[in-house]
Design goal:
Length: 141
């Protein structure tokens, strides 16, 4: 299993009146993690969009544990939790500046044709990407 990591400097604009990161901003950080993971695997999401393929979120789950605050650096960990050739489940853990788990979550995606929103087989259309996801996904021992 490959785990991608990146760091986010918490900006004042991302916090609420209490100095705590506003809950919706974790979604943005999850996207940053997903993009970094795809790049770590040797691909570029923008390239598949150029050929008319999109990857919408079809399900999202976040569990909030402890806050991340203004001035901290958050650590975003991302990996492929599950993949079947069509659907991809990315998993996330975001840690606060003290190394405590702030959120855990998952987002499920499917690749679709832009003009029809009909699902496509990643296995058939992007065999290299398929192979990389098969190697990177979490072992289910």
């Amino acid at each position: 299993m490959h785990i991608s990591e990146n760091t986010v400097q918490v900006r004042y604009a991302e916090t609420d009146q209490m100095g705590v990161v506003y809950h919706a901003n974790y979604l943005v950080w999850m996207e940053l993690g997903r993009t970094k993971l795809i790049e770590d695997l040797g691909f570029n999401y923008a390239e598949i969009e150029k050929v008319g393929i999109l990857s919408p979120v079809v399900d999202l789950n976040i569990s909030y544990k402890t806050p991340v605050r203004y001035g901290e650096k958050a650590l975003v960990k991302t990996w492929v939790e599950d993949y079947d050739g069509i659907r991809i489940t990315y998993a996330y853990e975001i840690y606060n500046g003290e190394g405590q788990l702030a959120i855990s979550g998952q987002s499920k995606h499917v690749c679709v044709k832009k003009e029809s929103f009909r699902p496509i087989s990643i296995r058939r259309m992007f065999p290299d990407w398929h192979e990389a996801y098969e190697k990177a996904k979490r072992d289910k021992d």
